[in-house]
C-alpha cells in the first residue's frame, strides 16, 4: 500500500496552514470505527417534523446519544439528521434545508449530515416526486461542500415503510458511525421491514458463517479481518497460487483456508461442501475476487476480455446459482437472519474507465446481477447488494504512476484515497442483520468520487 | 490390551509445501522455516488455530545440531496451542512414515485423540561440519584452563583440517552411494532402461494431471512463490528421457540403465498429516478421508551384499499382508515410493518371483502381481521430488484423498530407506 505522504503533511500544523493558504486540498484524518468506542461523540440534531423525525430521534435516544432538536449558535454538533420524508413539494423543503445549512459551520471534524426521504419512484405525484428527487440533489451537493472529513448521505425509505423498521435504524447507525468514513454523497434505500437489530452492536455477525473470495490480500484480507472482528466465522477462498498468503490471513482470523479457482465449474459446490463440513451452514457470501487486464478496446485480445468476464462476473453468477439451490444457504433453516450476498462492483462499472472496457463491463454486470437476484434472496428473507469502491489504497493502486495516483486520490470530496477497511466496513454492514431491509443496491465507497457520478 | 479397546486412527487430511529441487527456490529456507510453513498451512486448512494437538511428530534426515528440537520449535511458530507436545523422529527416508504410523498407533490405543505427523528435509541448507581432527583440537582448546594451554592446542591446527565436510549421503558401511547400490540391484533383477523411463514418464504425467484437475488444491500450500513441485516436467517424453546418459552403475558399461531422470533428484520440502480419532474429527467438524490400518518396518542385510539396499519393503510387505490376510489384488491403489524407478520395479519383480518369495520370504508361492493402472496414480517421487523425511506425509495424504469416498477400499504404501530399511503401510478409504 502506498503511503499518502500529502495527507500526512496536510495534517501537521504547518501543513494545514500552508495547504489552506495555497488553496490546496485539505484531506482530513477520517474518523474510523473501533470496537468499544462511542458511536459518535457530540450532539446529533434531528431536524424536521415528520414521522421519521420522531421515530429516529427516539432511536438515537435509545442509543444514549445527545439528541437535540435545536442547538445554540456556537455549539459544536457531531451530526445532523434532516428528515424530509413528508415533503409534498420542493417548496416544502425550505425550512429544514436552511436549518441544516446553518449547522454546517458548527459541525465537528468527520461530522455527518444524513437526509431522510421517501423513494421518488414510490409516488406518481409530480410535486411529491420532485420534492423527493430534490432531496437527492441537495444531499449530493452538500456532500461536496462538507469539510474536515465530514460526509453527507441519504436514507431513502420505501413508500409505506415504517421509519422505525430495523433497516432504517441500521442505515442510520452505519452512516453516523466511523464505519462509513469513506462513504459520501450516497443513498441507502430501505425497502422492507426485514432484518433485526443485533444484541451487541460490536459483534453483529456473531454466530454467522461467511465465505470471502480473493481473501489472500488487499481488500479481501481486510474484509476477512473486519467480518472476524464483527463476530463471523470465516471460510477464506483464493486461487491455489495465493495459498501461502491465504493461510496467513486464515490463521490471523481463526478461519479456514480453501484454495480454489472460483472459475471452476464446481466452485460453488466446493464452497458449500466445505461450509457443510466445517460449520453445517453458510450465511454470508462476499464475492470479492476480481482481476484487471487493462487494454484499450482497439487492442483488446480474447484472453484479456474473456478472463476478466469469467473471473469477475460469470463465476459469481454460477456460484450464486449453486448457493441459491442449496438449503445450506438458507438462514431460515437456522432460525437466524436471512442469507447475505455482497459483490464487489467498482466505480469503473458506473462511469466507465479508459482501458477498462472488460473490467467495467464485468463490474456493471455485477450491478445488474445484484439487482436481478434480489427477488430470489427475498424469498429466503435474505439480501444481495454490491459495493463499488472508488480509489482505494491497495497494492494494486500503489502500482499506478505517482502523478496519476496523486490526482486520482484527490478527485473526491474527501481529498484522499480510501482504505481497504472502508470497503470492508460497508460490506460488513450489508452482511449484518441490521441491513436486512436493503437489497439489490450498489453502494459506493468512493469519498464521492468526481468521476462516475 | 484387548482388541476391543483399539479404535480407528483417522487420516483427516494433509498439507505440504511444493517440493523444490535442491539449491533452487528454497535455497535460503531452513528445515524449521519449511516445517513451520507446512504446519501453518495445515492449521489454516482445518481451522486448528489455538487447538491443543495430542502430539506432533516429525523429523528431518539432514539436520543441524541447532535444530535439536526441530518439531517443537516449529510448533511454537504456529497458531497451535503452545501446550502441544512435539518430538523429532528419524528413520532416514522412512521418517515420515514412521512418524505417521507411530502416531496412528497412539490414537488407536487411546493415548492421544489427535496428532500431526510428517517430516522435512533440506539439501540446500544441509549442515556442514568440520573435520574430526579440527573438532578434537577445538574441544581441547575449550577444555584448556590457561591461555598458554589454549594457544598450544590451537597451534596444532593445520590447513588440511579446515576443509569443510559436506554431509554424506553415502552408506556409511559400504561407502557407496544409494544410486550405486540400486544399480547393482537393478542389474541383478534385469530391469531395463525402457521400463524405468516409462515409469518416470508416468510419474510426471500423473502428477501434472492431478495438479491440472485441482487434486492438490487441498493438499499443497505454496511456499516462497512456488505453487507446484518444480521438478515436475509435464511435457517430458520417452524420447527426451532416452537421450540421457547413465548416472549410476557406469561400471556396467552398456548395461547401465539409471539416469538422472529415472532417479529421484535431491529435493527440499516438507509435509504433514493430520490424524485423529473418529470422535475428535467429529467434534471438530473435520473430514475423515481414510483410516490408517497398519504398518510394518523392515530391514535387510545389505552390507555384505546378501540383499539389495532398498529391498526391505519387499520383506515388510509380505509380513504385513500376511498379518492382515490380504493380497495385492485387494488394493484399490498402490503407492510405491520412487527412490529410483528401478526400486519400484525391483520390488514388483521380487513379489512376482516365485523363487524370491519362496527362498527369501518363506512363502509357498509368489506374493502376486501389481496392477500398474493402480500404481502411483497421482505421481510419485520421480516427478514430485523426494525431500527424504517429507515423502511419507506426501504419500499418505495423497493416497488418503484418492481413497476418500471409496469406503472400504484399500491403499498400499511402500517406502524404502537408507541403511537397508523400509516401511510398508495399509490405509482404508472412508
Automatic annotation (TrEMBL), chain A:
UniProt similarity note: Belongs to the short-chain dehydrogenases/reductases (SDR) family.
Q: Which residues form the Ketoreductase domain?
A: 208-395
Q: Which organism is it from?
A: Nesterenkonia aurantiaca
- Write out the coiled-coil annotation as residue ranges: none
Q: Which InterPro entries match?
A: KR_dom, NAD(P)-bd_dom_sf, Sc_DH/Rdtase_CS, SDR_fam
Residue spans crossing the bilayer? none
Q: Which Pfam families match?
A: adh_short_C2
Entry's PROSITE patterns? Answer: ADH_SHORT (PS00061)
| The protein, known as | 3-oxoacyl-[acyl-carrier protein] reductase
Give this protein's Gene Ontology molecular function annotations: oxidoreductase activity, acting on the CH-OH group of donors, NAD or NADP as acceptor
Automatic annotation (TrEMBL), chain B:
Molecular function as annotated in GO: acyltransferase activity, transferring groups other than amino-acyl groups
**What residue stretches are annotated with the Thiolase C-terminal domain?**
289-428
Q: Which Gene3D superfamilies match?
A: 3.40.47.10
All residue ranges annotated as the Thiolase N-terminal domain in the record: 10-279
An example Pfam family from this entry, by short name, is Thiolase_C
Keyword tags: Acyltransferase, Transferase
Give the top-rank taxon of the lineage listed in the UniProt record for this protein: Bacteria
Recorded GO CC terms: cytosol
Q: Catalytic positions?
A: 93 (acyl-thioester intermediate), 386 (proton acceptor), 416 (proton acceptor)
Q: Which family does it belong to?
A: Belongs to the thiolase-like superfamily. Thiolase family.
Record-linked PANTHER family: ACETYL-COA ACYLTRANSFERASE FADA2 (3-KETOACYL-COA THIOLASE) (BETA-KETOTHIOLASE)-RELATED (PTHR42689:SF1)
Q: What is this protein called?
A: Acetyl-CoA C-acetyltransferase
Q: Name the source organism.
A: Nesterenkonia aurantiaca
The major lineage groups are: Bacteria, Bacillati, Actinomycetota, Actinomycetes, Micrococcales
Amino acid at each position: 500500500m502506498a503511503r499518502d505522504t500529502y495527507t500526512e503533511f496536510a495534517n501537521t500544523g504547518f501543513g494545514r496552514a500552508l495547504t489552506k493558504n495555497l488553496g490546496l486540498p485539505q484531506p482530513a484524518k477520517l474518523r474510523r470505527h473501533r470496537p468499544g468506542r462511542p458511536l459518535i461523540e457530540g450532539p446529533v440534531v434531528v431536524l424536521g417534523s415528520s414521522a421519521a423525525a420522531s421515530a429516529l430521534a427516539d432511536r438515537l435516544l435509545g442509543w444514549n446519544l445527545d439528541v437535540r432538536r435545536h442547538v445554540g449558535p456556537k455549539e459544536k454538533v457531531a451530526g445532523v439528521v434532516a428528515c424530509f420524508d413528508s415533503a409534498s413539494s420542493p417548496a416544502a423543503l425550505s425550512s429544514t434545508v436552511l436549518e441544516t445549512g446553518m449547522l454546517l459551520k458548527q459541525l465537528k471534524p468527520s461530522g455527518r449530515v444524513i437526509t431522510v426521504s421517501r423513494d421518488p419512484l414510490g409516488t406518481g405525484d409530480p410535486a411529491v416526486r420532485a420534492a423527493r428527487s430534490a432531496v437527492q440533489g441537495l444531499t449530493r451537493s452538500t456532500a461536496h461542500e462538507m469539510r474536515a472529513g465530514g460526509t453527507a448521505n441519504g436514507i431513502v425509505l420505501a413508500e409505506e415503510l415504517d421509519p422505525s423498521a430495523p433497516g432504517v435504524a441500521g442505515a442510520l447507525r452505519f452512516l453516523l458511525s466511523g464505519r462509513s468514513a469513506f462513504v459520501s454523497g450516497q443513498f441507502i434505500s430501505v425497502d422492507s421491514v426485514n432484518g433485526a437489530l443485533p444484541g451487541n452492536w460490536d459483534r453483529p455477525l456473531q454466530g454467522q458463517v461467511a465465505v470471502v473470495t480473493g481473501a489472500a490480500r488487499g481488500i479481501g484480507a481486510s474484509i476477512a479481518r473486519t467480518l472476524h472482528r464483527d463476530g463471523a466465522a470465516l471460510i477464506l477462498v483464493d486461487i491455489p497460487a495465493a495459498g501461502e498468503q491465504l493461510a496467513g490471513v486464515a490463521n490471523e482470523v481463526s478461519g479456514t483456508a480453501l484454495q480454489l479457482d472460483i472459475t471452476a465449474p464446481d466452485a460453488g459446490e466446493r464452497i458449500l461442501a466445505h461450509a457443510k463440513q466445517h460449520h453445517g451452514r453458510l450465511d454470508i457470501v462476499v464475492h470479492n475476487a476480481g482481476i484487471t487486464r487493462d487494454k484499450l478496446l482497439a487492442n483488446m485480445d480474447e484472453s484479456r476480455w474473456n478472463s476478466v468476464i469469467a473471473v469477475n462476473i460469470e463465476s459469481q453468477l454460477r456460484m450464486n446459482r449453486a448457493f441459491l439451490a442449496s438449503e445450506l444457504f438458507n438462514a431460515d433453516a437456522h432460525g437466524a437472519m436471512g442469507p447475505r450476498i455482497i459483490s464487489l462492483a467498482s466505480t469503473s462499472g458506473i462511469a466507465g474507465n479508459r482501458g477498462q472496457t472488460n473490467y467495467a463491463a464485468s463490474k456493471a454486470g455485477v450491478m445488474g446481477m445484484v439487482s436481478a437476484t434480489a427477488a430470489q434472496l427475498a424469498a429466503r428473507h435474505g439480501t444481495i447488494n454490491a459495493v463499488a469502491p472508488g480509489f482505494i489504497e491497495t497494492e494494486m493502486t500503489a502500482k499506478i504512476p505517482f502523478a496519476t495516483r496523486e490526482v486520482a486520490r484527490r478527485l473526491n470530496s474527501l481529498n484522499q484515497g480510501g482504505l481497504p477497511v472502508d470497503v470492508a466496513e460497508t460490506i460488513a454492514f450489508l452482511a449484518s442483520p441490521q441491513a436486512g431491509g436493503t437489497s439489490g443496491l450498489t453502494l459506493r465507497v468512493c469519498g464521492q468520487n468526481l468521476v462516475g457520478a | 490390551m484387548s482388541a476391543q479397546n483399539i479404535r480407528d486412527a483417522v487420516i483427516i487430511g494433509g498439507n505440504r509445501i511444493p517440493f523444490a529441487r535442491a539449491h533452487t527456490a528454497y535455497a535460503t529456507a531452513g528445515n524449521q522455516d519449511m516445517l513451520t510453513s507446512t504446519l501453518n498451512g495445515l492449521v489454516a486448512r482445518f481451522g486448528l488455530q489455538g487447538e491443543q494437538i495430542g502430539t506432533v511428530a516429525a523429523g528431518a534426515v539432514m539436520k543441524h545440531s541447532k535444530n535439536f528440537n526441530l518439531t517443537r520449535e516449529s510448533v511454537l511458530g504456529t497458531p497451535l496451542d503452545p501446550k502441544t507436545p512435539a518430538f523429532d523422529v528419524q528413520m532416514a527416508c522412512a521418517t515420515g512414515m514412521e512418524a505417521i504410523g507411530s502416531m496412528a498407533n497412539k490414537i488407536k490405543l487411546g493415548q492421544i485423540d489427535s496428532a500431526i505427523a510428517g517430516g522435512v528435509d533440506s539439501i540446500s541448507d544441509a549442515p556442514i561440519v568440520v573435520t574430526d581432527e579440527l573438532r578434537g583440537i577445538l574441544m581441547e582448546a575449550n577444555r584448556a584452563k590457561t591461555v598458554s594451554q589454549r594457544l598450544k592446542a590451537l597451534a596444532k591446527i593445520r590447513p588440511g583440517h579446515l576443509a569443510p565436510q559436506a554431509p554424506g549421503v553415502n552408506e556409511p558401511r559400504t561407502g557407496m552411494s544409494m544410486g550405486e547400490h540400486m544399480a547393482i540391484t537393478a542389474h541383478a533383477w534385469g530391469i531395463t532402461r525402457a521400463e524405468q523411463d516409462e515409469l518416470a514418464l508416468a510419474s510426471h504425467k500423473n502428477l501434472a494431471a492431478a495438479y491440472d484437475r485441482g487434486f492438490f488444491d487441498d493438499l499443497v500450500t505454496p511456499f516462497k512463490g512456488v505453487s507446484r513441485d518444480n521438478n515436475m516436467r509435464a511435457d517430458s517424453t520417452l524420447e527426451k528421457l532416452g537421450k540421457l546418459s547413465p548416472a549410476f552403475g557406469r561400471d556396467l558399461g552398456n548395461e547401465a540403465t539409471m539416469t538422472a531422470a529415472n532417479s529421484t533428484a535431491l529435493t527440499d520440502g516438507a509435509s504433514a498429516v493430520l490424524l485423529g480419532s473418529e470422535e475428535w474429527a467429529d467434534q471438530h467438524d473435520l473430514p475423515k478421508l481414510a483410516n490408517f490400518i497398519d504398518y510394518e518396518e523392515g530391514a535387510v542385510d545389505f552390507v555384505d551384499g546378501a540383499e539389495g539396499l532398498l529391498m526391505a519393503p519387499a520383506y515388510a510387505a509380505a509380513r504385513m499382508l500376511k498379518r492382515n490376510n490380504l493380497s495385492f489384488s485387494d488394493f484399490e491403489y498402490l503407492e510405491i515410493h520412487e527412490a529410483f524407478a528401478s526400486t519400484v520395479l525391483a520390488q514388483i519383480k521380487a513379489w512376482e518371483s516365485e523363487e524370491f518369495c519362496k527362498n527369501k520370504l518363506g512363502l509357498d508361492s509368489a506374493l502376486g502381481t501389481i496392477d500398474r493402472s493402480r500404481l502411483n496414480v497421482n505421481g510419485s517421487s520421480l516427478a514430485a521430488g523426494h525431500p527424504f523425511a517429507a515423502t511419507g506425509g506426501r504419500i499418505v495424504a495423497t493416497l488418503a484423498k484418492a481413497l476418500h469416498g471409496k469406503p472400504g477400499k484399500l491403499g498400499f504404501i511402500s517406502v524404502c530407506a537408507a541403511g537397508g530399511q523400509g516401511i510398508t503401510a495399509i490405509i482404508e478409504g472412508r
